[in-house]
Amino acid sequence: MIENSLSGLLTGPFTFLRPDRGEFDRLFGAGLEALPLPQRIFLEEEEATPLEGFPVFNSPGAQDLRQALERFILAEEELQVAVVRRRRFERKDHGDAWQSYRRLLRRAVENATLSSYGRRYPSIFWLAHSLDVARLLKETPRRVVRLDLEVGRAEGRRIKYRLFDKFLDRAQAASQETLRSLSSNDHEAAEDFSNTLLRQLVENVLIFTEDHISSDLRELTAYLSGYLEIEASEFLQRFQNLHEWHRELLLTEPELAVLTLNVLDLEEGHDPRSALFHRGYVRYLASRADYDPLSLLSSPQIDQWEELLDQLKRFEILRALRRRILPVSLEGERQVYRPGPGDRPLEGQREIVLSSSTRPLDFASPWVIDPVVHRHGLIYDVTDFSRVVSQLRRTGSDAQEHGYRMMFRFQRQVNLLARRYKLKLEKFLGDGAFYTSRHPLLLVACAIGLQRTYISFLKQGLPFDCGMRMGLNSSHYRLMPIHIPGESDLPRYDFFGHGVVELSRLTSGKTEERLEAIQSLMISRGYPAETVHRFFAPLVGEQGQHPYSPGGQPLSEEGSDNIPDGAPSSFSAFLSANGALTNEGIVATSDLVKQLSDALGSRLLYRTRMRELPYVLVPIDDGKRPLLVGIRKMGVARLKGLDDLTVYELLDAGSLGTQSLRPLRRRRLVDAIDELPHRNENP
After folding, report:
1. Does 199 fall in a domain?
2. What is the pTM for the complete model shown?
3. E strands present in 400-467
4. DSSP assignment of 48-71, as one string?
5. Cis before 141 (ω within 30)
6. Same domain, residue pair 438 and 378
7. Is the peptide bond preceding residue 345 cis, with omega within 30 degrees of 0?
8. pLDDT tens for residues 148-205?
């Protein structure tokens, strides 16, 4: 998984790295698992090819952290110059700068750690933050020169790496303090933090001090002299001499050129310098009789070069990942990525507008990514599934096998239907499923298609023939990341919260009172059944009503004639006098109907009467053939655990031709439904 993701990402161009799994394993070993995997980032036009990377929100909190880091680095530079000059220094300002940065750093680390759950947020944070540190430390020698010319020329490069060591010690200490404070309450978060990329970054000085290194190594002057404390100018000159000598060697010895091309697996027309970036190759050249250690790299310098080369390769891997960080700014309602000054544009674009569904990471926010999302949801449930399963078990293995096979085929067809309407399967429920969508029109069209699919399978002999009910809503859901180590490198998300409870209640019709259970309990304790039913009659409605008839009225022959082929009498829903919901069809919340109304705008609607009840008919074009959906307001349902909820019934009116229907003047759907006459009035 990691190999495929990184090999797809790290495609070059590279100077020092050969991007293959063997190179990654040698350079990182077990630490390879700490590398965060880029995610797909959808663009404003969601049909376009998505990018791969890490969208990071340039929030006010993120800006505060960068500014606090800059104040601390600048204060530390002034302190270092004062120490060299043995001058007095205002330590209070320096201490305040550190404490301000430390407080914001600990908050960001805590947010990233507590919100990670296998998503490697701490690694992504340090990957992004290391770039802020590198851009500041890269310019430290120049700023020190401006503070004090003499100190800057003599000590500027050393000050840069003394400052780096001090920053790293303090940043690690602050991070460990955060980890200790969290470990007692959240062991999983502590474990995730312990695998952070920070350990890999600490072992690579370059990633915190440079943002780019070219093939001639000129950016390493400060590193060689200030950190490794070797003569940088001599080392770089000897390396340049080695490059020129090697280039002439390849021209005069064709067999060496062929050997280099094949053994090192280089491409035709490669830069001769690239062969020097293969481990062991310079040492091989040094074994030749014509190798001059006085003008080229000496034996100790070759050892230094081999160690430096691994650092450069690790730097290039980390930098390639770091380049996949997209700083996202909010401009009105648009999420925009623009590369900063000196940045190489990702995918060659100077501006990228991201999809509104993209949720950038904000490490200044407690959740990093807000877990609350707004979706249109659908749950379908096959009625009396468990009872039919029990019956199939008693009838024999053949019938049971046939029933399960039919159910498998049905659910497979439902998934294909959901894919066609761009619904996403969030949770499989055994005898049903939970889907979400960003488009209310497609959600309603899929619900009608699902009902028709069920009817089709009934005709083919599906034994689960007691009916199917659906709930539709438009609500806020919370996402719970679920990551099982070893199963996948990418976490999956599970929906929970109010929206799921609402859909569950719409399909089950479970009320707060649970009157049937109370009646059964009283009868079992000896109370006369007739007396109990008479006592509860005002709450459950008139006795003897048809369980599937809307409004508590039996279907007449005339009413049955008005039911289209796509909506048999069993697909219906009604409310009792006390707000108890019976759903054997499709029930939607008022929020979903409002969203549907907004999506439809002002369009031609129709009005008719079915089942002796008035409906507004809505034409919906699903891309294949027009659908006609009947909608009526049922009333206020009182469902267990929920506030009073206005619910609507949706019917498939596909067999009705619009030619025989009465059109309404153009208006919004919700207004047309509110203007429906009482069911005893003629439309």
Report:
1. yes
2. 0.73
3. 424-428, 432-437
4. SPPEEEEEEE--HHHHHHHHHHHH
5. no
6. yes
7. no
8. 999 999 999 999 999 999 999 999 899 888 888 877 665 555 555 555 667 777 778 9
DSSP state of 419: H
Phi and psi for 159 in degrees, rounded to 5?
-60, -40
Task: Give CA–CA dist 382/372, Å, rounded.
Answer: 29
* Exposure b/e, 480-492, CB count within 10 A at least 16 = b: ebebeeeeebebe
Question: Is residue 35, in this structure, part of any structural domain at all?
Answer: no
Domain that holds residue 585: 515-674
Beta strand segments in 566-612, E: 573-575, 581-583, 586-589, 603-610
> Is the Cβ–Cβ distance between 593 and 506 less than 8 Å?
no
Q: Which helix (H) or strand (E) holds 388?
A: helix 385-395
Q: What share of the chain is helix, strand, coil (3-state, %, to 5)?
A: 50, 20, 30
Q: How many domains does the chain have?
A: 3
Closest Cα to residue 31, out of 224, 218, 199?
199
Q: How many CB atoms lie within 10 A of CB 341?
A: 4
Q: Contact, 180 vs 193, CB < 8 A?
A: no
- DSSP structural state of residue 365: S
The residue type of 84 is V
Same domain, 543 and 504: no
Residue 391 pLDDT greater than 70, yes or no: yes
582: amino acid identity, one letter = T
Q: Which two tokens stand for residue 32?
A: 């390879």
